Amino acid sequence: MMDKVRVRYAPSPTGHLHIGGARTALFNYLFAKHYNGDFIFRLEDTDIERNIEGGEASQLENLKWLGIIPDESPLNPNPKYAPYRQMERLDIYKKYIDILLEKGYAYKCFCTPEELDAEHERQVAAGIAPKYNRKCCDLTPEEVKAKEEAGLPYTIRVKVPAGKTYEFDDMIRGHVSFESEDIGDWVLIKANGIPTYNFAVVIDDHCMDITHVFRGEEHLSNTPKQLMIYEMLGWSAPTYGHMTLIVNEDRKKLSKRDESIMQFVSQYKEEGYLPDAMFNFMALLGWSPEGEQEIFNHDDLIKEFSEKRLSKSPSMFDKEKLKWVNNRYIKERSLEEVVDLCLPFLSDAYDLSNHSEQWVKDLVAVYHDQLSYGKEIVELVSLFFEDELQIDEEAQEFMKDESIPNTLAVFKSKLEELSDADFTKDNIQACIKATQKEAKAKGKMLYMPIRIATTGIMHGPDLASSIMLLGKEKVLSRL
Ligand code: GLU
């Protein structure tokens, strides 16, 4: 029987949840849930200078918003595997580093950063691929002891075995191999006593019974380093899947400085994207379902997800597609929910004090089907908050037709007959109909003049609704 699937998302708390991180978390989560396994949230917080205040909480909060709830995390620990923050696991790493030292797989290195830099420069100048020159590899136990007693700082390096090939079958890339010759003796424990990522991750993945790892392709070249530690400790490694890059519309890797795309999940939340739409959209960043269907809810994605359909080529973050997906989800929401989504943006942008709740609801209703994200409502409805009627050139040109003044006069007189309470969409529609008969205007020559005279634009939302929303007073004065 296959072991229970256990996967993890292991961010560094150096920032908020980035699109790339969210996608990594999502794929691990979908894989775990597809196989009834556990999804673990662990924190790689050993780069202490780069950690930010609240980084962990913000990561968890944004994951939760997306609907990704870890089975285990620092806040929800399983005592068998806790703690879940690397800085709280230092004694665990110490135990294994002692084993590696004792077995001669690792050694203490007293080279100073200046010496290492100088050697690096020398190698580069000589055209050799730079790697540690093993100066400290063969220090005698007495020499090591003397240096330690003299209080010299040291790192601990792994002694990379000679002439070995490290290979594995990647769930996404297939067979991958690396030669140990190309890897210098790398640092396991830094001079401050804190382990490096490549060492700690092995200990954690092993001790937490992690079975599969989906992570970004930037970690591919770290894998042989991790495999050598597994081998030295006599453990078997998890199965890896290295996901391809997410690129922007210029096919460039998403970088935090790229302003063409909002990079953080919280920004989408702030702009009024829906979490289930983001979940759906991100699942399509590097994974594709079998058929043509692209809209899947949370549970269906779990059912459909297959590691066999993860893409080998970069996935483009297509903002228009995200809007399309989000619009599909907005359409499915009730009008009340969409009003709740839009209201904060509306009240931020406009003074709503003169408008009833019903008016706001009617306003949002007009755009319910076309809305891509909550904040978009602000520009869509601007016409209802402008006092001055603005008519562009093309529309002015159109209004020169000599039949128009009569059509508008008739329409105006029809509207005047409506009481304030009767100024409803249906009654306004009836006035348009009546104008058609009386003024003998039809089609474009009926609707367009009325639309331009009342809203100033040639194309817009449903005409009768627009007139109702503008209100009787404004419409009559414009007419
Ligand atoms: N902290 C690493 C990262 O965020 C995790 C890498 C891994 O999954 O092994 O990239």
UniProtKB/TrEMBL annotation:
GO cellular component: cytosol
Compartment list: Cytoplasm
UniProt keyword terms in alphabetical order: Aminoacyl-tRNA synthetase, ATP-binding, Cytoplasm, Ligase, Metal-binding, Nucleotide-binding, Protein biosynthesis, Zinc
Main location (coarse class): cytoplasm
Binding residues for Zn(2+): 109, 111, 137-138
Family per similarity comment: Belongs to the class-I aminoacyl-tRNA synthetase family. Glutamate--tRNA ligase type 1 subfamily.
Protein name listed in UniProt: Glutamate--tRNA ligase
Species whose genome carries this gene: Longibaculum muris
Gene: gltX
